[in-house]
From TrEMBL, chain B:
Molecular functions per Gene Ontology: oxidoreductase activity
UniProt keyword list: Oxidoreductase
Lineage top rank: taxon: Bacteria
InterPro entries attached to this UniProt entry: NAD(P)-bd_dom_sf, SDR, SDR_fam
Pfam families, A to Z: adh_short_C2 (PF13561)
Keyword Oxidoreductase part of the UniProt annotation: yes
Protein family: Belongs to the short-chain dehydrogenases/reductases (SDR) family.
GO biological process, one term: bile acid metabolic process
Protein's recorded name: 3-oxoacyl-ACP reductase
TrEMBL record, chain C:
GO molecular function, one term: long-chain fatty acid--protein ligase activity
GO biological process: bioluminescence
Record Pfam families: LuxE (PF04443)
Name of the protein: Acyl-CoA synthetase (AMP-forming) AMP-acid ligse II
Organism per entry: Lentilactobacillus parafarraginis DSM 18390 = JCM 14109
Domain annotation Acyl-protein synthetase LuxE: ranges: 6-367
Amino acid sequence: MKRTVMGTIKVIPVDIFKMPRGITLTNFGYQTITIGQLDYSLRFPIVTPDAIVEINDRLRHNQAAYLSHLTVAEIISKIDQAVNLWTHPDYPQRRLAMKLLPQITGYNAETVELEIKRFIRVFRKKELMRFVDSELDQPEILDDFHPQKSGSMTKAFGPETTFHVFSGNIPGLQIWSLIMATIVKSASLGKTSMSEPLFPVLFDQSLAEVSPELADCLAILPWKGGTMNLEEAATSATDATIVYGSDTALDAIKELVPKSKIFLHYGYKISFSMIGREALTPEYYLQTVKQAIEDVAVYDQQSCLSAQTIFVEKGGTTSPLNVAKLLASELANYQLKRPRAELTNEQAAAVVRLRNDYQLKALNDSDVQVFASDGNTDWTVVYHAHPGFVNSPLNRTIHVYAIDELEQVPEYLQPFKQYLQSCGLAVKPTRLFSLANQLGRAGIDRISALGEMTRAKPGWHHDGHFNLLDLLRFIDVEQNTERAAEKFDPDVE
Amino acid sequence: MLLKNQVALVTGSSRGIGATIAKQFAKEGAIVAVNFVKHQERADQVVREILEGGGQAFAIKADVRDPVAVQEMIRKIKDNFNGLDIVVNNALNHYTFNPKTRKTDQSITWQDYQDQLDGNVHGSFNVCHEALPIMKSQNRGRIINMASNLVEFPLIPYHDYITAKTALIGYTRSLAAEVGAFGIQVNAIAPGLTYPTDSSVETQNDVRESIINMTPTKRLTVPEDVAGSAVFLASRLSNNVTGQCLYVDGGLVMH
Amino acid sequence: MTKTSTEIQNDIYQFIQTYATTDDQQLSESDFNRVALDLFDYQFKSNLPYKRYAQSQRKSPLIVNNWQSIPLMPIQGYKQLTLSTTPVQKDEPVFMSSGTTDPNHRSHNYHPSFKVWDASMKYPFKQFVLPDRDKMTILGLFPGEKTNSNSSLSRYVTKAIDFFGDDKSGIFIDENGMDYQGIVGALKDAERQGRPVMLLGASFSYVHLLDYLNEQKLTFKLPVDSRLFDTGGFKGQSRSVDAQDLFDAIKNTFNIDRDHYINMYGMTEISSQCYDQNLVRLYHHLPLDYTKAAPAWVRVRILSTDTLQPVESGHAGLIAYYDLANWNSCVAILTEDMGIQDENGFEVSGRVQGAEAKGCSIAVDQLLHANQM
């Protein structure tokens, strides 16, 4: 990195960990990020398994002493206050996030700013209430015993402490998991990835402003994924483990989690979009193309919600081939507007290899065409005249398949069933639910409008399952117990 | 770059306007076929200059009046690049623009007319005839024919030259009407007196001064002016423009 | 004029003879450029898929004026296309990749004649592997030509022994597996007689051999000047081996020092080999250098993975390989190997793996892998 000799460098310390009060750490590592004349020195603790156990004990204590006594409504209200802080452009934590996250992640600064702004609003009170409501008929069941239709009185308990293993692909995404756990009154031990260790720490600082006791129920710190002794300590000390990330990361940790404990995993997923001929009328086709690219370009397809493949139906006023060309131009435009992150050699080479494969294929096969940015790997569109399905090496690389009828798409999805997730869909109302039904059978768990794929809504059954319910266990007090208890009321008549 | 990796044939580009167009195309990233008929060394010089500037070009010989030679030239281009994106019909029979020695209506012969028609219209026809099948298969192509503003404003009546250039504009329009559906655009450029070139060096100073006086921009056209318009017509900047004649003469002719 | 197949082979053969042991690529540069351009012209005319690929890249002999601008055939082309300047004859020798990474697609490199290939193999082997002698005992740990006629490495091992092996040399592996007792016997003989030996094999051969010797608790004090030759890598094998662990094991098991370990870079798709320079430098009393050198008929460039333009010296990128000996297919190849080059030589850091996705999306390779299981 070049620096002016004359300029003085100012060093700003930033902690990328957050501990409950009472935990003292002594051994630290540092990483420096330079922005202009400023050096941000990121400090993180280097911990031992014993420290993990100690942190978990503290979390467990704080959960029992404080969090377990809050009602769900109170918790939501405190989170809402913290979220509100983030809606102010001048909020220091927000400014720091907007400044550092593009540097840490490599994502375009404007994208980060826009997406964080949108994302944080997903956790406002009304949204969280919807979220809880969508899974629990009686959210208060987390606070106290409530009568059930069966006659029993039931209360739900979350884990006392939960261990989260975050991946760093999407900035901020970690707080989804943290908030989920907090709502079920679980304290959280979050292991961040060095590719995005910042946002959950900043959010916990916001919680501390609202309620220091609540913030004390969270501990966030990074370590290198796969550090066996730390992960073993964390999985056996906590009551539940939630892992985000690759199958490799998953396999290693799954081994460590005792059978009796809750284990949830959100792993590799593929998403795609489908464009019906009715979205390709002269009036709409340009807008359709623009929205389809939004799903590809935001966070460079690193999110599992991003489209990797686009099916384009024949019979619209614009042919699938022309749509592919238009998608290519829109990617080129997007590159000017918000450039893609720089790639590692492995990532870039994967794009080069994909291009080579299909360019060679195109020599003998006029059904394949490659449209690609010139002189770099910024974006790539591979057009296929015949339908199929394949995932992409990401980083703004898409496959476009022409298809006679969108109703045929599920045939091509079969081999990928276990990996399918979201589908961006642009069709007319009369086809929407029959297609949705077909896609549901094929394994897709979420359908959204084009351009909205990367912005999941609270209440979404993440990867097709419950968010809160899977963390809960229930206690039923049968009616006979109540009746029997009544007998022992000395005053009963 | 506006013409990156597009294959462009510029006929008669070993010198003058043609050479300038070739160099300008190369600067915009085109792979330029520098066509010549006699002066290999001048064509090589143009290619050398392009290569030194980091461009891509090669010299290719063919007399555009000879259908067999043209066929061979286009075959060679196709064999090497499996495509041809841009043709500039710039070659002409050598013509000297000298008002004092020009042929009058009585001294001129039909053969003079015939020679100009051969060089201009037949030459363009030969090249287009071979290039169009390639462009049609690509569903894309640009043809630019070099006309003259004398067609509209025969300031000095070079009969044979003006007649041939007028025919070339008709040829341009008619062809544009036919091949537009194949994604091929055909246009013409009509430069004013372009100075300096080999053809115009004999145009005397007083004539040049009188043209300058009449010209709104108060100057003669230079080869780079024409090359700029050629880049425009060869590139996406002129999408959906076809059958037109662009006057590059400082506003001497206005429509 | 475009050369004929015979003419171009003769030109290349002549080039190899002329520059057989030339270290300084500057000396051969203008001849290399001339022959490379002639070769590209020949291949463009006679190797239709290469021509089509070149055309699609808008490259042709008309505008390719230096070897650096010859279009690079992506290495996948050897799987997807039939790349041969001469019509492929029935029973024509062809080298195929072992296809460990993708068993359905194997690279094919056709060899209607081995005249150039043999010359290209012979001189650098002498120069880099046997700088101190003309013959030695070579113990082959990779199946020979007879066992696997479609392997370029098998032919290489067989030829190495033909050209440079003494009467104690042999190949100790065939379709039935490795002849461990034979190897142990040969090593003991050498040890006893004070006769230096060369072990010659693929990287994974050593993993198995070292495991066996370790189990049997066998170690050797091989005589001075013994050496260990290795090629390939340890990736994709049943287990990976750390380089330093390997050197330690070699030292402890065979008494062969790091400076007598030599690695060769070669592959099915090319017809020449590059070698570590440590042995040649050691025996010529030059400062040690473990980077690789290419023979005069090969050029290596390191290209940015993003732009495919050359990177600065010392930066990592994809290896582009220009090989005059590859006269029958493509003179220029874009490999999938990452490398680093400086003024002394280049290093290969390994095959580009499927990109590790940062998050929850699947990289192509990982998915392929998942579907195979």
